[in-house]
Structures are given as C-alpha cells and as structure tokens.
Design a protein that fits this description.
The chain is an alpha/beta fold and 435 residues long. It has 14 helices and 16 strands. Bound molecules: pyridoxal-5'-phosphate (PLP). Pyridoxal-5'-phosphate binds next to helix 4.
Length: 435
C-alpha cells in the first residue's frame, strides 16, 4: 500500500447505504453513509476508490500495533491450519493455557475466564462478583460505579454504565447502581483536589451500604470523553473499597495493553484489582475476544460438590484458538518492544501543546497513546455538532477521527509514524479553522 500523500485526498463522496446492513450506534437519517474499506496496512486504511486514510482512532480503539500486522496475521493463519475451534467445556488447548499463564503473570490475577468482547468481559466480572458473595453465604447487592462510566452495551454492562441517550430506551431493564462522581482533570486544572475530595466523600457515604463491588475504568473513562483522573485518586478509592470489604473491578477493555503507557493502567496507577476485564487490544485488534481475570480466592468459592456453586456462564466461541493465537502474538510484540507504547506520550506532547494554545481549545489531557482536548463551542455532550463537523473535515484531509461531542481525541495504532501523527494534528487544526 502506498504511503499517505499529504493533500492527496479530495473531498469525501459518500456511497449510498447498503440495502442489507445495519450499522452500530448509527442514525441513518442524519449520518453520512459509511466509506467502503478494502484494505488496511499499518496506520492506514485504503478505500475502494484507492484513497488512503490514517486511522487515528485505531478503529474504535482496537487496532493496537497496526492494521495487518504481519506476525499476528501469520500466527492466526498457522493456528487456523492446526485447530480453529473446539468446545471449551471438557476440553482445553495449548494457546488458551499459554495465554492464561502469561496474562496471569502480567496481572497477578491467577484465573482467566474467556468471553467474546469487552461487554461480555464486564458481564462476567459482574456475575463473578455477585455470585461470589452468594456462594460465601453473605449476599451483597450493591454495585458502585462512577458518573460518566461506560462498560458496554449488553444489559448488565449497560446498567453499570452512566444512564444516557444510549441507555434510555432500556431503562426499565437496568438494575440500580450507586454512583460516585468522577473527578476528571486536565493540564493546569486548579480545581482537581476539591473535586476529588467531594468524590471520595460521596464514595464514603455509598460504602456504608454493604457493597459487592466497585467498578472503574482505570485512569481514563473513554466513551464519556477521554475523562482522565489522577492515580492518587484511584489509590484513595482502592483504599476505601478495601476497608469496606468490597471487590474492586478494573475495566481495562479500552486502556489495557499499553494504551496508558504501561502494559496495564492498573499497574501504572498502583491498583491491585480483584477482577480485570480485557478485550479490544487483547488480540492486537484482529479478532473479537474478551477475558476476565480473577483472584484465586474468588475462584475457590466456586468449587464444591454443590452444583449451585458453579459459574453457569459460557459462550460458544469461548477461548477460540485463533483469538488466543492472535493474543499471544500481540503479547510477544508488547513484551519485545515496550518502548513503542511507553514512548507514545512523548510523541504526542509537543503537538498537543501547540493544539492547546489555539483559541477555543481547552482542557488538554494526555495519557500514553491518548491525547484529547475539548472544543469550547456549543453544549457539552455527544450530540454537540462540532464533533461531526471536525470528523468531516478530518476525513477530507485523510484522517479518521470520531470526536465524542466536543471532545476531540487521537488514539492511533502504535505503528503510526511521526509524519502521520503530525498530519493528524494538522487535520484537527485546519478543521478548527473551518468551524
Ligand atoms: C471501558 C470499556 N468497557 C467496555 C467496553 C465494551 O466493549 P465492546 O464494545 O467490545 O463490547 C468498551 C467499549 O468501548 C469500553 O471502552
């Protein structure tokens, strides 16, 4: 695939909608029809008319090393020729064993339960936490999550997430969740300590009710607008959760596998969760797979003669060998080249400083691969039209962005070149001029 030529991309001419496809999170009546992608290589996507786009959002935060990364592609092909799938009840296989051993060594959590995506990885964590208390004979029913949280689109994960336009039609199906404020912060934020203190005070109140688990997205809430908190806040949360005897669930579906600058954000923040949900970058972004890692003490409460102790949860494709092979190859890359993820923050920084100095741009924030700003125009929230305008102008400049309302962010694959990264920032700057 040719490299991106600056200025080579003309205005975007949309295709009509396909008569048989139904796209996710998409209002057909008000959205531009989707572009047709025929190939991906590195940070680039190639459209059917030959145009190239920089995938500055890693295709919904999944593409970790780059599109078509050759060692992962080869590992999947090798595995497909050997064993493509086998039922994971009554059977196990080497790729699953190796992945469990390696992720356990990296996280310190001894047990790994497979599922299919980020939402199911969270659902499993939720069910383990709930049933663990029941199996011990001390049922606890309160879950605590944070304002602005997003944990997925299945019903349980949606209940844990912040109530929003997205969850509103399903409100009667969602169980009640107690919620504490999320004291998001940014560069030169004078009010952060006050907001953290208020959040902790609220958490203290909530924890007076016996609590099964507290779930959080370590360091960054992604979907609610790349809302970043300080590690010391999370450690203060952890301390309170421990004191209350509740479990701590880290949803690292988005931030895991180097996105935070550390292999796992929990580690970087000094957290030792009881359960961790992982997906997205797990397979390098090649195949859908989720895992939930759990402490041995949780697993032990599910073992016994009484069938009621069993975790009755499973998916047809549990521990799919192709997904495991992709995940192992992705881990090989992360272990061999930690500088690739550890170095992203320094690569973003000078560009973000320049962007943040522009009028109308505020709240710059940066963690690992993720850089974000708020555009001071229109109401805060997903429906702010600024996001759509910037998405269109970036596309015309050859860059895929998907702003979250007024929040514009970059979360590129690790292979992005300096030239491509510079081009992404230039596309945002020129989009801002056209607003
Ligand atoms: C923090 C977090 N948890 C869970 C999910 C749900 O993952 P999936 O879309 O794979 O179901 C997401 C997706 O963006 C996420 O960001």
């Amino acid at each position: 695939m040719a490299t991106l030529m600056s200025g080579a991309i003309a205005a975007v001419s949309p295709l009509p909608w396909h008569p048989h496809l139904w796209h996710p999170t998409t209002q057909v009546a008000t959205t531009d029809p989707p572009l047709r992608v025929v190939r991906g290589a590195g940070a680039l996507l190639e459209l059917d008319d030959g145009r190239l786009l920089i995938d500055a959002i890693s295709s919904w935060w999944v593409t970790l090393h780059g599109h078509g990364e050759p060692t992962i592609a080869a590992a999947i092909a090798r595995q497909a020729a050997n064993l493509e799938q086998v039922i994971f009840a009554n059977f196990r296989h080497p790729p699953a064993e190796q992945l469990a051993e390696r992720l356990s060594a990296h996280t310190g959590l001894e047990r790994l339960f497979f599922s299919d995506n980020g939402s199911t990885a969270v659902e499993v964590a939720l069910k383990i936490a709930w049933q663990w208390w029941r199996n011990r004979g001390e049922p606890r029913s309160q879950f605590i999550a944070f304002e602005g949280a997003y944990h997925g689109d299945t019903v349980g994960a949606m209940a844990l997430g912040e109530r929003s336009l997205f969850s509103a039609p399903f409100e009667p199906l969602l169980f009640a969740v107690a919620r504490a404020p999320w004291p998001a912060t940014w560069w030169d934020d004078p009010g952060v300590e006050e907001r953290e203190a208020a959040a902790l005070a609220r958490l203290d109140q909530l924890l007076t009710t016996p609590t099964a688990a507290v779930i959080l997205e370590p360091l960054v809430q992604g979907a609610s607008g790349m809302a970043m908190v300080r590690p010391q806040f999370l450690r203060a949360v952890q301390q309170r959760v421990r004191q209350a005897g509740a479990l701590l669930i880290a949803d690292e579906v988005m931030i895991g596998f180097g996105r935070s600058g550390n292999l796992f954000a929990s580690q970087g923040a000094g957290l030792e969760p009881d359960l961790i949900a992982l997906s997205k970058g797990l397979t390098g972004g090649f195949l859908p797979m989720g895992v939930t890692l759990a402490r041995e003490k949780l697993y032990e409460a599910f073992v016994g003669e009484d069938p009621a102790l069993t975790l009755f949860h499973g998916h047809s494709f549990t521990a799919n060998p192709l997904g495991c092979a992709a995940a192992l190859a992705s881990l090989d890359l992360l272990e061999a080249h930690p500088e690739r993820y550890a170095g992203m923050e320094a690569r973003h920084r000078p560009h973000l400083e320049t962007l943040a100095a522009r009028p109308g741009v505020g709240r710059p924030r940066l963690l690992g691969s993720i850089a974000a700003v708020d555009i001071a125009q229109g109401p805060a929230g997903y429906l702010n039209p600024v996001g759509r305008q910037l998405r269109r102008s970036a596309l015309a400049a050859g860059v895929v962005l998907r702003p979250l309302g007024q929040v514009v962010y970059l979360l590129p694959p690790l292979c992005i070149t300096d030239e491509q990264l510079g081009h992404c920032y230039a596309a945002i700057a020129s989009g801002l001029e056209q607003l």
